[in-house]
Amino acid sequence: MSSSSAAGGGRWISVPPERLDRWLANFAERHGATFTAEVDGAVRVIAADGAVATCTVPFGPLDGALTEHALLDRRVGVLLVRLGGYAAGVFEGRTLVSSKVGSRQVHGRAAAGGTSQHRFARRREGQARVALAAAADNAVRILVPEAGRLGAIVVGGDRSAVDEVLTDRRLAALLPLVQPRLLDVPDPRLAVLQSTPDLFRAVRIHLVEPAG
């Protein structure tokens, strides 16, 4: 379980689905009797003392009870893109059943001044285009053949790089499956890809507790 502060108050907590029932029970023990309602695609749990836990629904819309919904094993495609690398994989539940990971060099620092700086910027733009094209080719190879069998596509890495890759017309069949959340991951490597179920299966909870 992990947590982080949120703009506007409260904090975000990520809870594995296997621990969600226990977390909600502890919430009720701390804050009193709870009332639960679906609000804007989330499950909001309001306690007697005013504490509120708003639970996102992974792979919505919600189908039945939240915990059972979150625990379902799904066939999920994952696309991770940063300028330094890319990864695509297909998961059956937590098991990675197919994948390909790669990288392309993109220089990150500009040379100082004048003509050399412009040359560097043009070279870097060219390297970025090649890297993003390679990431798109990878997604075409791993994800597109699975489009009809996938329940969702999860993306992660750098938002602008991911968005640029998804403009490739060959990936059009994947777009309706893409989840809105962007996974915060380092440069894609096989180990990073293998760890993504911990992120995309978790139920994210926005927790607001009474002062004091």
Would you give an account of this structure?
With 212 residues, the protein is an alpha+beta fold. The chain has 2 domains: 2-71 and 201-208, no CATH class; 75-200, eRF1 domain 2 (Nucleotidyltransferase, domain 5, 2-Layer Sandwich). It contains 6 helices and 11 strands. It has helices spanning 20-31, 66-71, 114-142, 159-165, 190-194, 197-200, and strands at residues 2-5, 11-15, 34-39, 42-47, 52-56, 75-82, 85-92, 95-102, 152-157, 178-183, 203-208. Strands 1-2-11-5-4-3 form a 6-stranded antiparallel β-sheet, with helices on one face. It has a 5-stranded mixed β-sheet with strand order 8-7-6-9-10. The mean pLDDT is 90.
The ordered H/E elements are: EEHEEEHEEEHEHEHHE
Radius of gyration: 20 Å
Low-confidence segments, given as residue ranges, are none
CATH structural architecture of the largest domain = 2-Layer Sandwich
- Number of folding domains? 2
N-to-C terminal Cα separation, in Å? 23 Å
Shape: elongated
How many E-type strands? 11
CATH class of the largest domain: Alpha Beta
User: For the report, how would you describe the main beta sheet?
Assistant: 6 strands, antiparallel
- Across the major sheet, the strand order is 1-2-11-5-4-3
The CATH homologous superfamily of the largest domain corresponds to: eRF1 domain 2
Number of continuous helical runs: 6
What is the share of helical residues? 25-40%
Provide the residue-averaged pLDDT.
90
Structural class category: alpha+beta
Q: What is the beta-strand fraction?
A: 25-35%
